[in-house]
Amino acid sequence: MPGKKIKVHTATLIVIASMIGTGVFTSLGFQLLGVHSGFGILMLWLVGGVIALCGALSYGELASAMPRSGGEYHYLSKIFHPFAGFLSGWVSATVAFAAPTALAAMALGTYVNKVFPATNPVILAVAVIIIVTFIHSFNLRQSARFQNVFTILEIALIIFFIIAGFVLEIPTTLSLMPQQSTALNEGWHSIFSSSFAVSLIYVSYAYSGWNTATYMASDIQNPRRNVPKALFYGTIIVMVLYVLLNYIFLYSAPVKEMQGRVEVGLISAIHIFGLKIGNMMGMMIALLLIASISSFVLAGPRVAQVMGEDLPQLSFLSIKNKHGVPYVAKIIQGSISLILILTASFDKVLLYVGFTLSLSTFFTVLGLFILRARNNGKVEGYKTFGYPVTPIIFLALTSWMLFFTMKEHPRESLLGFGTILAGSVVYFLKKPTTSIHENPIVQENN
């Protein structure tokens, strides 16, 4: 029934909640290892926002033409082949949720450890994933309420952080203009460097989630119109918040203190509020990272469940308990997260997941050109603003980012390709004989 479906403002909030999470509170320290100026860092977040916005505008047309839940899994199956859709779904089921869950838990452990050094960050990270997974194995309504409360608190904390930072009496020396005189304030050449391109992987991870509304298009009122709106509004809002928040981080704390550190939010908070209140803010950030963990644990197994329902070779992922929870998919996702925590460092996992997810979105946006060609250029619903420049910008910047990541970090890149290769093996072990995705591309009805 129409009244049961999600309205555009709710869909926008879901996009915002999906984007704001671990990346913005943790990745700046790794960016500062390659980009050494305030100007370069803010340009990094601005360019990352442009990539996300161009992707959101391009996905808007795909969602309008094919208004069914599933995101890349649905689009790539319809545009290219069910095999392409399967690989995208495989990435979602194995990496897209498990790795970010691990990252959020690792960040939480690091933040708590810096406030309470006796705490073992790895043990805490493992415990949090197990506890949150257990909580989401029972009452879905309570899980949703839990998620909403933590998301609202997370947004409020970011706004409070920004306001508090602007009223700081003794800021650091930060130049927003490109200068050639010092290494700290390097010029425009920095944004064309390989270090800038690799750092975009960290930023792209922080912006990931801009496509969330496409995963639930069937549940949104008038998806042809409202999904593109939710993607656009949500991405713009988060882009503004991210640029301002990173400005505050740089404005309040010395760059050298944050380089290579995960807990940049804590470092900034101590400079803004002092040690005691700063530690309290650090603990608040740690607690709110539970919102990220919760969202991944709640949503991820649902993607795997849908794949299990569609594809015979993954039917075990659709097994549910008496409460309707896909517990097998949940256990598998949780296990992958725990393995990543126990075997890899934070920055390596972040590079791995950022690279792999960027590959998936790259081919999805590329599919927009194929969709237009097969429909003879006809667009009945939402039309991508600025086409073809908008998707070309996305593809060009993403290609640049992926190329230098492969060059500078071959191990993490190969792990990304290895994940896709493993999906190929699974697909051909027992190829599905029928699929709803084998239909030719057509403009679908609402």
Task: Summarize the structure in words.
There is one protein chain. With 446 residues, the protein is mainly α. It has one domain: Amino acid/polyamine transporter I, CATH 1.20.1740.10. The protein is built from 19 helices and no strands. It is globular and about 60 Å long. The protein starts with 7 loop residues before the first helix and ends in a 17-residue tail after the last helix. Mean pLDDT is 81; it is low at 181-185 and 433-446.
The strand count comes to 0
Please write the string of helix (H) and strand (E) elements.
HHHHHHHHHHHHHHHHHHH
Determine Rg (CA atoms, Å).
21 Å
- Tally of structural domains: 1
By helix and strand content, what is the structural category? Answer: mainly alpha
**What oligomeric state do the depicted chains represent?**
single chain
Task: For the structure shown, list the relevant keywords.
19 helices, 72% helix, mainly alpha, Amino acid/polyamine transporter I
List the helices and strands and how they pair.
Layout: H1 8-19, H2 22-26, H3 28-34, H4 38-65, H5 72-79, H6 82-96, H7 98-115, H8 121-135, H9 140-166, H10 194-207, H11 212-215, H12 223-252, H13 255-258, H14 264-273, H15 275-310, H16 327-343, H17 346-374, H18 389-408, H19 410-429
Helix pairs in contact: 1-12, 3-10, 4-10, 4-12, 4-17, 4-18, 5-6, 5-17, 6-15, 6-17, 6-19, 7-8, 7-15, 7-16, 7-17, 8-15, 8-16, 9-12, 9-15, 10-17, 10-18, 12-14, 14-15, 15-16, 17-18, 17-19, 18-19
Summarize the structure.
This protein has 446 residues and is mainly α.
